[in-house]
Amino acid sequence: MAGSRSELRRAAEKGFRYFDYNLIVIVLFLLIFGLVMVYSSSSYDAFLTFGNASFYLKKQIIATVVGLAAMIIVALIPYNLFYRVGMLAYLVSLVFIFLIIPFGHEANGAKRWIYISGISFQPAEIAKLAMIVFLACLIRRMGDGIHTWRGFGFVLGMTAIISALLWGVTSNASSAIIVFGIALVMLFVATRDYKRYVIVGVAGAILAALVVIIILANASGVESGNVGGYRGERILAWLDPEAYASGKGFQTLQSLYAIGSGGFFGKGLGESMQKLGFIPEAQNDMIFSVICEELGLFGALALMLLFILLLWRLKIIADNAKDLFGTLIVAGVMGHISIQVILNIAVVTNTIPNTGISLPFISYGGSALVCLMCEMGLALGVAKAIRAREY
User: Fold this and answer.
1) Exposed, middle or buried by CB within 10 Å (0-12, 13-18, 19+), for 209?
2) What is the pTM assigned to this prediction?
């Protein structure tokens, strides 16, 4: 923090606006590392499927270039202009979710993608970005009303609509949880009474425990497909992956084998065995397990440290933002990244049931990366508006 203050003082002496170059460096490093790991984890499968080992890498490079361009454009726009499009962002997210019904492309048993002229994207990723802007606008407009239970409930209710649609229409439970988590983080920053978060947390824990108890009590019904559906099977596989090694527990077991075989320093970049057909689509949700196998615990800890540094730089921007709207935007970005990183690592290590969630900046996925880079642009736009002389 002292370094950041000295940066602000030096800028103040020259009358400059503060700009967080450290954030840019961290993001670029994560992007480059992500490209390396996408190629390492996908080259075998890409060669067998498409006859081109760099098939996924090339598509990810295109998404990275588009994402960087989007980040620069968004960062150049005065962030206060986004205050005018809060409700529009909410409506856009609704429209894209409903477009899944007639135009959605089904893969792995779920409709989560829309294909237009050879380009695919996930409405869930657009919803995460849109909800950050919308919630920042809504909370700012509500003013002191946000401190009441009625105001608190209204914000959560508006968020619950999007989360419920993501869960029901796209069968994307992980994105529904993330969107709701983003709202809680932003409300936590904006309000003073923290008791309500304890109540929400306890209620959520009780609900989750009840679901697990019901699934266990009806295990035979779950296995026959009459109770809980595929989510019930995932919970049973989470509790005892070896018992479901040929089904829902297969991916989790292979991921754990990869993590365990990596040791402290790993087998070496490109030397993973589990990516050779054992971990399905290793470049996506389970890429962290390949990182652990090839780079070991050392590489995994280094990556987690990078994410911590990224969140720290975002916190500095949020703390010094010139208004509540800017603080809330950056808080939403922080909430999104932190929740998604925690959930991804928790899934890969079988700490929670498998929910199918990508690792930010690292996992393969164009729409997720582009939307995430737009969020980085929002954060940089807030940072750009900070006048160092004010501190």
Assistant:
1) exposed
2) 0.90
